[in-house]
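Quick bug: Sugar phosphate transporter domain-containing protein output formatted oddly.
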Amino acid sequence: MSLKPSISSDHTMLPLSDPPKNQPDDKLFKGSAMTKRGAYAAISYMSCAVLLVMFNKAALSSYNFPCANVITLLQMASSSFFLYILRRWRVISFTASESLHISDTSTQFVSLKTLKHTFPLAAAYLLYMLVTMEAVRGVNVPMYTTLRRTTVVFTMLAEFVFVGQRYTQSVVFSVGLIIFGAFVAGARDLSFDGYGYAVVFMANITTAIYLATIARIGKTSGLNSFGLMWCNSILCGPVLLVWTFIRGDLKTTIDFPYLFSPGFLVILLFSCILAFFLNYCIFLNTTLNSALTQTICGNMKDLFTIGFGWIIFGGLPFDFWNVVGQFLGFTGSGLYAYFKLIGK
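Here's what came back:
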């Protein structure tokens, strides 16, 4: 018996596909600059991001799994599998104009021309991923958190360069408050390290380029968020597989003593599922709102990540100025969200 579900006349696409931006009847409230779908995308991203950090932390710390690249590879492979099955079953489409009722026996869901068009996105993602991992390795956590908060500035510059985006004084003020709070939070731990600073700022630049590339290609490729995820997985997966093989991570994974532990496998399963939804929410939030909104959401979810991390894993020492800095950063993120909602 075929596993492929029957296609009825009332079979519709998932309601998460990207709609036209700024629909008159989709505003969060009168005068709002953010749509209801945009707000749902932002909240969904923050929820998935916090949960994914918890599961990744459990795998890497609680089980001491040494290969973060392998987890990333598994997440990417799972994402490709989920997208393939959902597309073959016609539950989703990869373009906004694609009909789910058209008979399709081809396994090539996206044309070669479209793959070439999305290549800069895949390249930006790989560069962002590799540089970010090196940044984590090269500096201590307080310094890394402090310097990574400055990503918002690089994102604003990237959006201005790539899509000509300009910002109001209200937005600039809220971003300035985030940066000030970040340096207050980490000031007691900052110690100059030329290489560490350089790598973290490179991570900020690559993050900004990646998000700005999502915003630009998302508007010019004709693909929705599922289609962008598919192209990203198809182009990046083989490269990451070769990279993990060269580094010896695959052999290390095979020799890992808890590889077939039920608890570890459950954590990996949820990590892969959450990564799929997180990647979708990143694409959706960036295309529905903006790259800067995505970055601000990343800052806002840090508060919940720190809180849940302290409750579940412990080990977070109390420091007055760190708390003050975190509060200032969260206030800045809240102000940005407020200005976004009221359209200022």
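Actually, after a second look the formatting is fine. The first helix runs from residue 36 to 62. Closing.
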